[in-house]
């Protein structure tokens, strides 16, 4: 690994004639700030929380609790409102500054919303929520496309103290129902339809399907529907209400509810290695500080900047890096409704040129796809406004990193490979622009407050690292402000998943190495979580969707390597006795998963087999399946523990014939 090239910070970033001076501008400054942040977190984060956030009541205790006791809390006694911090205080100072640039699905549909207008809209929506009886602590589910009203909905919830639970609009009715029921939503916010890549998405119809379930129907009192396309949609009198009609009745002034720093701000469901999706709970003060401080230091956002994150609001990246982080800083954030290839693969570069974007944040899977389509789609675009290019969601391969750096950044931008998770709330390992020399494929150094460690999974002790390739499991040794506080209604699962595997540590679930420069290299999940195009999927959930099909006896799902999507899903399925295999069965089973979880979860391949490789006690050895799909059938290791070693030959033939 010593042959890996180190890229110095581009000189342009440190030249005040060309760029605003980065908030941190030397490695020494980063090191001293980081040291203070982990050695005196009370001092460091107390100051940062007073600098970046506005508190209606000051906190006294900066840091409380521990990983041992599982009761982490920050800024106790402090009171603040996230919507006040993201909207009011900027609207008061700078009402005409653009808060949101919405680039619609068609490139000519651009809408700009100022902080002043945002304040009126958020306040009116907050009054709509109140008129419908929503109060502090109530749960509201949001199933909406990438439009400003979705951000307004989240901020309105925060304003009245309701806990939002955004469900990615690519999830199926079944997945939406499970989330609505688990969080106990009293209200669902949606749109008639969504629009993406020239196609309509039937959001309202999916909400109706989800609410056909009696448990969901018993909880949800109203569905508020925003008109996005104007198509005719089914209507349930009494339950369904039009967004514009409710808004027109509402006052545009609404006092923000004072919230305790530890009051919940939102729930966001994510997949674990086993069981149902987990409702990750984030609280108000610590989360908002994490989102704001990482946008400030990692994206180096200055007042004149136009910052753009291409994630979907249905994932945590959208929460922290489209909505809460940039708006808490009073920045201009771009909200993108379309896809990287609509109407053609120049869309991102057109967007950057048109809005003079300064920070651009996307995922390796998009970079790989655009790189593959050819440089002609980038040529001729003026990308000189860019200073920082971010990557997130999965490890970025050096070919994609180099392309992003050379073709998009023209070697003049800082590439920030940002490592984090739904549970961490904000970025925890990343370079800082103007500070950190970069290496393609490494997320480099920890953010403030983060003290990572690499543990030996067999002993649970800190690993003795003797070479750059030594890989252990990544853990964090002390609490940080934006970490998740619990799993909704299941604190023991929270403790079991993150805090008990390695006592005294937060366990990330990823393998990692650390090189001789102290840089971290994330190697991918060590549990049964698969990462397809940056979407986190649980093998157990996909298996359970497959065995719901009437023909399936047993299913095992593993991740294969994929040049485009990072990983892809391979399902191994055995059929019930008497079921005949037919030509369309593979397709039918893929559809089954798409229908039960969502289109993005569909397996790439379904292999119909007679027998799974099992141990004598009947456990499927997924390790063997994983090796076979990745072409490592000559490195299967010890297969003598298999009940029936001869099945391996048949499996190899099935996959590789
Ligand atoms: C998992 C978390 C948090 C943003 C979106 C995904 C993987 C995330 C990186 C990166 C290598 C990464 C990890 C992590 N991951 N960013 N820069 N390099 N791997 O959030 O759905 O909660 O998934 O994504 O495996 O554990 P998420």
UniProtKB/TrEMBL annotation:
<dbReference type="Pfam" id="PF13193">
    <property type="entry name" value="AMP-binding_C"/>
</dbReference>
<dbReference type="GO" id="GO:0005524">
    <property type="term" value="F:ATP binding"/>
</dbReference>
<dbReference type="InterPro" id="IPR032387">
    <property type="entry name" value="ACAS_N"/>
</dbReference>
<dbReference type="InterPro" id="IPR045851">
    <property type="entry name" value="AMP-bd_C_sf"/>
</dbReference>
<dbReference type="InterPro" id="IPR025110">
    <property type="entry name" value="AMP-bd_C"/>
</dbReference>
<dbReference type="GO" id="GO:0019427">
    <property type="term" value="P:acetyl-CoA biosynthetic process from acetate"/>
</dbReference>
<keyword id="KW-0547">Nucleotide-binding</keyword>
<dbReference type="Pfam" id="PF00501">
    <property type="entry name" value="AMP-binding"/>
</dbReference>
<dbReference type="InterPro" id="IPR000873">
    <property type="entry name" value="AMP-dep_synth/lig_dom"/>
</dbReference>
<feature type="domain" description="Acetyl-coenzyme A synthetase N-terminal">
    <location>
        <begin position="30"/>
        <end position="86"/>
    </location>
</feature>
<dbReference type="GO" id="GO:0003987">
    <property type="term" value="F:acetate-CoA ligase activity"/>
</dbReference>
<dbReference type="InterPro" id="IPR011904">
    <property type="entry name" value="Ac_CoA_lig"/>
</dbReference>
<feature type="domain" description="AMP-binding enzyme C-terminal">
    <location>
        <begin position="541"/>
        <end position="619"/>
    </location>
</feature>
<keyword id="KW-0067">ATP-binding</keyword>
<dbReference type="InterPro" id="IPR020845">
    <property type="entry name" value="AMP-binding_CS"/>
</dbReference>
<comment type="similarity">
    <text>Belongs to the ATP-dependent AMP-binding enzyme family.</text>
</comment>
<dbReference type="GO" id="GO:0005829">
    <property type="term" value="C:cytosol"/>
</dbReference>
<feature type="domain" description="AMP-dependent synthetase/ligase">
    <location>
        <begin position="88"/>
        <end position="480"/>
    </location>
</feature>
<dbReference type="Pfam" id="PF16177">
    <property type="entry name" value="ACAS_N"/>
</dbReference>
<dbReference type="InterPro" id="IPR042099">
    <property type="entry name" value="ANL_N_sf"/>
</dbReference>
<keyword id="KW-0436">Ligase</keyword>
<protein>
    <recommendedName>
        <fullName>Acetyl-coenzyme A synthetase</fullName>
        <ecNumber>6.2.1.1</ecNumber>
    </recommendedName>
</protein>
<dbReference type="GO" id="GO:0016208">
    <property type="term" value="F:AMP binding"/>
</dbReference>
